[in-house]
Amino acid sequence: MLGDNIIEIKGISKTFEDNKVLDNITLGIKKNEFITLLGPSGCGKTTTLKILAGFETCDEGEVIFEDKKINDLPPYERQINTVFQKYALFPHMNVYENIAFGLKIKKLSKSEIDKKVNEVLKLVDLKGFEKRKIESLSGGQQQRVAIARAIVNEPKVLLLDEPLGALDLKLRKEMQIELKRIQKQLGITFVFVTHDQEEALTMSDTVVVMNKGVIQQMGTPEDIYNEPENKFVARFIGESNITDGIMLEDFKVKFCGRIFECVDKGFDKDEDIDVVIRPEDIKIVNKEEGNLKGIVKSSVFKGVHYELEVEEESMNFILHNTKNFSIGTEIGMDIYPEDIHIMKKSGEA
Ligand SMILES: Nc1ncnc2c1ncn2[C@@H]1O[C@H](COP(=O)(O)OP(=O)(O)O)[C@@H](O)[C@H]1O
Ligand SMILES: [Mg+2]
Predict the structure, then answer these.
(1) 85 CA to middle of ligand 1, Å?
(2) Ligand 2 centre distance from Cα of residue 321 (Å)
(3) 164: domain range?
(4) What angle do CA 33, 35, 19 make, to 5 degrees?
């Protein structure tokens, strides 16, 4: 066994015509993990899932499932099922028939089918909906049928391609919690795809950030949020202050014309780097006291905090603060060493 990995993707690449959409993707997926591919539209998420499911082939590289290379295995022989964004339910069949469809093809007995369908109906909270027509269901209920239909086959891995994309925000939040519960209860591996960073961070054990067919960073949601490895990740994951800096020596960085103590080391002397500072990590102090000072340019209430734009001599900072400050106020800003994140230059503009 490859550690506790159920799937290993080794150096896969894929080109459509002249367009290299996956460039040497290498990735281990652990048993029972909730792993999410996160990235902007067109970065290659769906193509990666299709290669895992067997609906698409890769030009280079290997897909390993439980120690066996499965590149040439057809989809129906893989212990992997997919829930697509467009649920592709059979409109002329009722809920029960939709879920039972795959089991009938496998020629299971009527009583076995009945038992399995009832179990998953309970799991997705759709008991009593057996006879309902698909078109009479809400978007959220249709989504549950699609999930039930995929998990009734007892796959070891479930691939979910932006499954919540069509739902409104409230329902989406509810389904995020539901999906986590289902995954925990079933104890199977979920490979989830989304372009929504908040969704990825709340749901996943591991997040894989992709851009232009290349993995940018892989780690826990906390790692990705707190320690983005490059500018792309920092920008994509959340509101951030990003600026050029120079790593003078270990634990000493210069930006905004000042020298700051930081917690990073191992860079070349005077290496050009990017500095990222989260809006919630900048403390507001009296203007005489901070490491930096600036003037409040705008303030917007965001529900929990105020988002302030503060003009500093060399750049504009975004700050999140529970207290409001009126426009024109001169403030001091304090940034602690552990809140200064240093990233290698990535070429991202
Ligand atoms: N069958 C195909 N033929 C040609 N180009 C494709 C095909 N499938 C996907 N692409 C292209 O590959 C890139 C990645 O697509 P996709 O994997 O669907 O991205 P994502 O799911 O991250 O939005 C896009 O530029 C898309 O247009
Ligand atoms: Mg897609």
Answers:
(1) 15
(2) 36
(3) 5-226
(4) 145
